[in-house]
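Reading a protein record of the kind used here takes little practice once its layout is understood. The reader may check this reading against the record printed directly beneath this paragraph.
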Amino acid sequence: MELNKIKEKVREIIEPVINVLNIELDDIELSKMRGKALLRVFIDKEGGVTIDDCELVSREVEAVLDVEDPIPYSYVLEVSSPGLDRPLKTPKDFKRFTGRSVRVVTLEPVCKQTFFVGQLVEAGDEELVLLLPQNRKVTIPYKNISKARLEVEA
């Protein structure tokens, strides 16, 4: 079975378990190298994630995955928060962090550049607006974003 199908099956299985704990499933990564696999589960909640949250989710996820067995090979489970410089992947992510400082790399140049750091002032369904230094604004369609993440604010 291909990795993306396994990831989706894992998501279907663990998301309800995590949501019952009043914690949000942020993302899943599944990678396989030399016969070993790593399943990374990123969680988030209002006020931030604690080590106790990670331990609790790890126990609950491990138990349900042992029963459902969606991964056809041995793997290591890792549970963590997305971090202060968390990646932004969906319009929902961008909307959630409107007002924060972000770093965006585009696939194609916008205003003759492909790298931006600015305040996320607007996040729609198709594009975002960044406020750059010197009060310049730039609009970037999501489909043109290669990478985006929150900037760690001092």
Summary: The longest strand covers residues 113-123. The chain has a mean pLDDT of 93. The domain at 3-80 is CATH 3.30.300.70 (GMP Synthetase; Chain A, domain 3).
